[in-house]
Amino acid sequence: MVRHTATSVVTIERFIIEQEGRHPEATGHLSGILYDLGVAAKMIANKVRSAGLADILGSAGTENVQGETQQKLDIIANEIIVKAMDHGGRLCAMASEESEDIIPIPDTFKHGKYVLLFDPLDGSSNIDVNVPVGTIFSVMKKITHGPRGCLKDMLQPGHRQVAAGYVIYGSSTMLVYTTGHGAHGFTLDPSIGEFLLSHPEIRIPEHGHYLSVNNAYEQHWTEPVRALMRRYRGLDGKREAMSGRYVGSMVADFHRNLLGGGVFAYPPNSKNPGGKLRLLYECNPLSFICEQAGGAAFDGHTRILDVQPTSLHQRTAIYVGSKCDIEIAREMLG
Ligand code: AHG
Ligand code: MN
Ligand code: MN
Asked: Which residue has the higher pLDDT, 299 or 69?
């Protein structure tokens, strides 16, 4: 593997190609998917940056399949990804948080051997107030035999992901991805329009300092969850208190904790008894990245990546972050 020094300039394109070189059997299709996702990310970043000026803030007046209000940017980001990805000949189907059914690849395009699942814009209710938002994606290999991808190809447990990543549109735009060989981060240099390697081999600290959870639901949590949160906050005297940090965009909360150490938790509550966050579009990809960085992810019973999905828009509870802190969740809830 090529070694880079701190001052090496490495574009995401070159990094992807170098990683592909580790697999003599690779066809280049997965690399192509990652590269195209990088292009889509730059297009979405551009829309997010100019949202306040271009009349694309606010609600679109529609709801998605989950009954959530769609923001105009949810729809725009969704379209950008579909249009960037549908004609490359590498995918056989897609699924998006914003689309009720699988998104087929048009017959006019070649069909490939991968499926792509994505949350086009995560934290979109924050967009009007200039809080970071993100995009999350997951790639799996097709397991059925026909040319088109189907539901069965989407409903694979997270440990079968071949790649996953997220983009955070924050004070800078960053793309973090894994193909199962560590998690690596790239920062967009807007002056040249390239993602450059800025965070190779990300490692999440084993013990974290930040706790990201929406405390407003405390009254709706179960007693074991309340006890766990008291432990994290140091209120039972059994550990040092963590600091609370909750933006309300999972990507932003997760990214902070990935780099600085900590836990992001969305426990079940009476409003969302099965949890709120989506297994396939949010929890699987971020859990894969977290594990690749040395962390862990758990749903209250099971490792997230071992959960067998049963439906496309399935929700789950999640506790993801620093390994030792997730171990505490496992002991207190599992
Ligand atoms: P999305 O915008 O894709 O629907 O996701 C919003 C999610 C997630 O980003 C965030 O962590 C969570 O909703 C916040 O939920 P609460 O407001 O219930 O805390
Ligand atoms: Mn989301
Ligand atoms: Mn979303």
From this structure: 299
pLDDT in tens, 176-207: 999 999 999 999 999 999 999 999 999 999 99
Burial of 55 (0-12, 13-18, 19+ CB in 10 A): exposed
211 contacts 230 by C-beta, under 8 angstroms: no
Q: Are residues 321 and 224 in the same domain?
A: yes
Q: Which CATH number is 300's domain given?
A: 3.40.190.80
Ligand 1 atom 3: the closest Cα is on which residue? 122
Tell me the residue range of the domain where 38 lies.
12-199
**What's the CA-to-centroid distance between 260 and ligand 3, angstroms?**
24
Please tell me the residue having the least CA distance from ligand 1 atom 2.
123
Question: Among 199, 233, 256, where does a domain finish?
Answer: 199
Q: Is the Cβ atom of 283 under 6 angstroms away from ligand 1? A: no
Query: Cα separation of 4 and 18, whole Å?
Result: 11
The closest ligand to the CA of 268 turns out to be: 1
